[in-house]
Amino acid sequence: MTRVKICCISSIEEARKAIQLGADAVGLVSEMPSGPGVIPETLIAEIAAVVPPPTVTFLLTSLTDPRQIVAQQKRCGVNTVQIVDNLAPDDYPVLRAGMPGVSLVQVVHVGGEESVAEAVEVAGWVDALLLDSGNPKLPVKELGGTGRTHDWGLSARIVAEAGVPVFLAGGLCAENVGQAIRSVRPFGVDLCSGVRTADALDEQKLLAFMEAVEAAG
User: Fold this and answer.
1) Using an 8 Å Cβ cutoff, are 78 and 59 in contact?
2) Coil, helix or strand for 116?
3) What 3-state class would DSSP assign to 78?
4) E strand spans, the chain
5) How far apart are CA 11 and CA 178, in angstroms?
6) Cβ proximity of 213 and 2 under 8 Å
7) Closest CA to 7 of 54, 63, 52, 47
8) Could you give the CA distance from residue 65 to residue 72 in angstroms, rounded to a whole number?
9) What are the structural domains of the chain?
10) Helix/strand/coil for 38
11) Is the distance from CB of 29 to CB of 11 less than 8 angstroms?
């Protein structure tokens, strides 16, 4: 079964609702240069503290200094760190040493052929990849939450070549997630805006999404 990560969780109540409706993981967004879902670290810590196992708690971080990332994870108490910007190869051992037992997920923003080589290279340093549709090259970086899809053909190649679990993100909703799963065969799918209405988790949209994921097998 394809795993489901619901991102942009903004309260304990939303986390509980997402888990009740079948989410395998919740995404908690710390400070970003742009995009939706940002909440204070104090609230991230409160949510992470009450999420029961085996649900995975993802901290989305835009920090690029590995020591700052380690300190942030310790403040927030999550079991997984999602790195949304690029790091240097030497940074990953620092993260491993500073956060034993914490999973590392690297975001790759799929924009062209070069994204395949980037993903395959970074896969050797992390536990999983997450393929999104941002643009870190803009003056104000887009590091997630764009609501846009990308070339799923490139994503399918990354899944085939990376050798680690791959989450697919970017513009997913109940109407297209079945096609996305059949095309890419990801380990999991991740979404934010596709299950929110008026900046709140929408139970009916989430139910429809979960049903579409289940139907896709």
Assistant:
1) yes
2) helix
3) coil
4) 3-6, 25-29, 56-61, 80-83, 103-109, 128-132, 166-168, 188-191, 196-197, 200-201
5) 28
6) yes
7) 47
8) 11
9) 3-216 (3.20.20.70)
10) strand
11) no
Global pTM reads 0.93
61: tokens are 């971080």
Q: Residue 90 CB: number of other CB atoms within 10 A?
A: 9
Q: Tell me the C-alpha distance between 81 and 31, whole Å.
A: 14
Task: Give the total residue count for the chain.
Answer: 217
Instruction: Reply yes or no: is the peptide bond before residue 139 cis, omega within 30 of 0.
Output: no
Two tokens, residue 154: 């490139």
CB within 8 Å of 35: residues ≥ 6 apart: 29, 134, 142, 143, 144, 145, 146
* Nearest alpha-carbon partner for 206 in 14, 12, 11, 10: 14
Can you tell me the distance from the alpha carbon of 19 to that of 4, in angstroms, rounded to the nearest whole number?
Answer: 10
Is residue 143 very low, low, confident or very high in pLDDT (cuts 50, 70, 90)? confident
pLDDT of residue 34: 82
Please identify which residue in the block is written with the tokens 């109540």: 13
Map tokens 């680690």 to a residue: 164
